[in-house]
Design brief:
Bound molecules: nicotinamide-adenine-dinucleotide
Distance between the termini: 40 Å
Radius of gyration: 17 Å
Strand content: 15-25%
Number of helices: 8
Order of helices and strands: EHEHEHEHEHEHHHE
Oligomer: single chain
Helix content: 40-55%
Length: 252
């Protein structure tokens, strides 16, 4: 098993990719604290995972919630080795849109949420002697998306913060990497496509593998980066997008 004995904290773990990451970490031997704002759903997942899992209410925009989540992790499982900053929101809007609240929310959750997470987790990882931080960015952290200036900005920010933190924390034995999912079958995307076949066919046409991705395919990459198999990998960006970002833009 890839992460036996490790203790992980995963944000946005009540559903979607965060849930898949938490489940896969447990399957690979870790103890996991699941954080989210969807308390009923998050608690249900943690209960199903059993003694190796706990749920905490963790709004990633709240520095108080972060302090509490890290304290609970250390109290319940004795240490913190892995942080997966997965929680995120998606908001569309034209450059000219009157959407200040959406833009501020995107920055609060997607960008500052990651900063607060790293700030809260690093002292605990230093107490544990080492650590791995996995920041879930997006394909929009590698290239722009139309009507997504706000979201794109935050996901580029996560990619940049990852590299800066990797440089700062490498000497302390803490690795920091970013994962860049393409279109993955979660509520975030399905609420936009509505399960619409035409929309899914369009997404598939933009990938080398000609399909959308599944949450567990992103979870596999996150668990790899969390594990000691990735011991010499830091400051890296790993695309999990079916080849969508491999295109020059003039793909067939
Ligand atoms: P999702 O909407 O299914 O799940 C996101 C989770 O984050 C939810 O459980 C939600 O409650 C939680 N969350 C939202 N705001 C929060 C907050 N303030 N504090 C704590 N939790 C909060 O979406 P998903 O597709 O599973 O997305 C997970 C991550 O992957 C996000 O960062 C997203 O931007 C990124 N991503 C998703 C896709 C995709 O195709 N689904 C592609 C690229 C990147």
């Amino acid at each position: 098993m890839k992460v036996t004995g490790k203790v992980a904290l995963v944000t946005g773990a009540a559903r979607g990719m965060g849930e898949a990451i938490a489940r896969r970490l447990v399957a690979e031997g870790a103890q996991v604290v699941l954080g989210d704002v969807l308390d009923d759903a998050g608690k249900a997942v943690a209960d199903e995972l059993g003694e190796v899992a706990r749920y905490v209410h963790l709004d990633v925009t709240s520095t108080e919630d972060w302090a509490e989540a890290v304290a609970i992790t250390e109290r319940e499982f004795g240490r913190l080795d892995v942080l997966v900053n997965n929680a995120g929101i998606l908001r569309f809007g034209a450059v000219t849109a009157d959407n200040e609240a959406d833009l501020r929310a995107l920055i609060e959750v997607n960008q500052l949420g990651v900063q607060w997470g790293m700030r809260a987790a690093v002292p605990a990882m230093r107490r544990a002697g080492a650590g791995s931080i996995v920041n879930i960015s997006s394909i929009e952290g590698l290239g722009g998306g139309a009507y997504l200036t706000g979201y794109t900005a935050t996901k580029f920010a996560v990619r940049g913060m990852t590299k800066a933190a990797a440089l700062e924390l490498g000497g302390k034995g803490i690795r920091v990497n970013s994962v860049h999912p393409g279109a993955i079958r979660t509520d975030m995307v399905l609420s936009q496509t509505g399960g619409n076949e035409q929309a899914e066919r369009f997404i598939a046409s933009k990938t080398a593998l000609a399909r959308m991705g599944e949450p567990d395919e992103v979870a596999a990459a996150a668990v790899f980066l969390a594990s000691d198999d990735a011991s010499y990998i830091t400051g890296a960006e790993l695309s999990v997008d079916g080849g969508a970002s491999a295109s020059s833009g003039f793909k067939e």
